[in-house]
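Retro notes (design track)

What went well: tokenization of the new backbones is finally stable.
What didn't: we kept losing track of which sequence belonged to which structure.
Fix going forward: every design gets posted as structure first, then sequence, in one message. First example under the new rule, 311 residues:
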């Protein structure tokens, strides 16, 4: 996955304020569906909104949770914070942290991670309805208030909005039988001397699949047939903290002998158990390889006879 900048969305420097702070080791963050996270999320919301603020239960559980992306923070197996993102409305809401855990930056953790999920979904901006006392908190996260104060469940609120921005890249998991092709990035590049998937930037006029086919031609000298998308990964540029949005595609078929360009010093065919033991550019690579193996099951191996591993 190349660190070269690609298409930049409107809204200022790509990904400003979207790098999620590292979580303390005692905390766990889960992101998923209402079906998966309803019990812990609803518990935190009941304590904070219904019992703590007097919000009627039927207003909190308003029937819009099913299509939302939910986040739950847990401590010692107990849910202590939550929030949700409604993709259709591009709206963040139901951000809540239990009283004993406030003042530790957990609200910021929740909001930033939900904004990252919005980037993953390709949303150009997000909105929220901030309680009046929390407007300054959201301003510090890059939101701007608009419109008058309004009442919601007897509590004054302001509408707030924030543009999102990112760099665009694309990567492929190249599967050869039951093994995966990874390359070692050249010294001096971002994540130099680490092992990475192959790919790179998306030019302004390109689709992700066309960009990946071009990058594989430039980096490896092969003509590849780009398969289905496996996931959309986010990663942060260590130079300035900007965010890259990177669709990752399955690639099982290609032609040509592999010849590396100067961006890489080596390539290897690796079993999944070997991938996790390498010094990787991004921690999500083993998970992506596992998903690629699952999706590639039953597909015909790539025709790449004559390629030689140089390490």
């Amino acid at each position: 996955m190349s660190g070269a900048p690609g298409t930049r969305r409107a809204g200022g420097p790509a990904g400003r304020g979207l790098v999620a702070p590292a979580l303390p080791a005692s905390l766990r963050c889960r992101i998923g569906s209402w079906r998966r996270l309803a019990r812990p999320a609803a518990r935190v919301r009941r304590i904070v909104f219904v019992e703590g603020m007097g919000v009627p239960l039927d207003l909190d559980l308003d029937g819009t949770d099913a299509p939302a992306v939910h986040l739950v923070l847990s401590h010692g197996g107990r849910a202590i914070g939550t929030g949700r993102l409604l993709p259709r409305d591009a709206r963040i809401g139901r951000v809540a942290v239990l009283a004993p855990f406030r003042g530790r930056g957990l609200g910021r953790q929740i909001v930033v991670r939900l904004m990252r999920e919005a980037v993953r979904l390709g949303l150009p901006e997000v909105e929220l309805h901030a309680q009046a006392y929390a407007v300054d908190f959201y301003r510090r996260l890059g939101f701007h208030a608009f419109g008058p104060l309004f009442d919601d469940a007897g509590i004054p609120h302001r509408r707030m909005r924030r543009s999102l921005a990112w760099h665009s890249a694309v990567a492929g998991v190249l599967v050869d039988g039951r093994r995966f092709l990874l390359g070692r990035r050249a010294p001096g590049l971002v994540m130099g001397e680490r092992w990475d998937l192959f790919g790179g930037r998306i030019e302004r006029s390109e689709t992700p699949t066309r960009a990946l086919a071009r990058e594989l031609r430039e980096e490896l000298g092969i003509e590849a047939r780009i398969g289905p998308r496996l996931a959309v990964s986010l990663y942060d540029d260590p130079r300035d903290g900007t965010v890259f949005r990177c669709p990752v595609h399955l690639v099982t078929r290609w032609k040509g002998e592999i010849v590396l360009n100067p961006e890489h010093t080596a390539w290897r065919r690796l079993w999944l158990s070997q991938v996790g033991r390498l010094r990787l550019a991004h921690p999500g690579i083993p998970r992506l390889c596992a998903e690629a193996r699952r999706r590639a099951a039953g597909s015909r191996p790539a025709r790449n006879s004559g390629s030689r591993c140089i390490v």
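Added context from the reviewer: The longest strand covers residues 167-176.
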